Automatic annotation (TrEMBL):
Protein name as annotated: ClpX-type ZB domain-containing protein
Record SUPFAM superfamilies: Glucocorticoid receptor-like (DNA-binding domain) (SSF57716)
Domain ClpX-type ZB: 1-49
Record-listed Zn(2+) binding positions: 8, 11, 30, 33
GO terms, molecular function: protein dimerization activity; unfolded protein binding; zinc ion binding
UniProt superkingdom: Bacteria
Length: 114
């Protein structure tokens, strides 16, 4: 069951787990990820991520849930745009083409919500 908590689209941390969460169109980034981006852009050496096989089952399950919640946020943002486009009479063919799919696939994915 998806939660409705805003989460960083990069690390998956919830809004209450970070100092700041910046909203963008369909995505969020936390202050911690912004710092990592600044370091990367500035050419500073980056810490490596631990390999997945070195993590416990509980760690992997927790990360999986966070990533899924981020995906749900992005999916909700896509649905919002489709709904708005349909109110503007944009065709299913154009929506499908923009998403790299067929008109029929776009209709099947979104028509119950448009």
């Amino acid at each position: 069951m998806p939660d409705n908590v805003m989460r960083c689209s990069f690390c998956g941390k919830a809004k209450d787990e970070v100092s700041r969460l910046i909203a963008g169109p369909g995505a969020f980034i936390c202050n911690e990820c912004v710092v990592l981006c600044e370091q990367l852009i500035g050419g500073q050496p980056m810490a490596t991520f631990p390999p997945l096989d070195g993590k416990t089952d509980d760690e992997l399950l927790a990360e999986m849930v966070q990533l899924d919640a981020s995906r749900n946020q992005v999916e909700a943002a896509v649905h919002d745009r489709v709904q708005l486009l349909r109110t503007r009479s944009v065709t299913w063919a154009r929506i499908g083409e923009a998403l790299g799919t067929t008109r029929q696939s776009a209709w099947e994915r979104f028509s119950n919500e448009a």
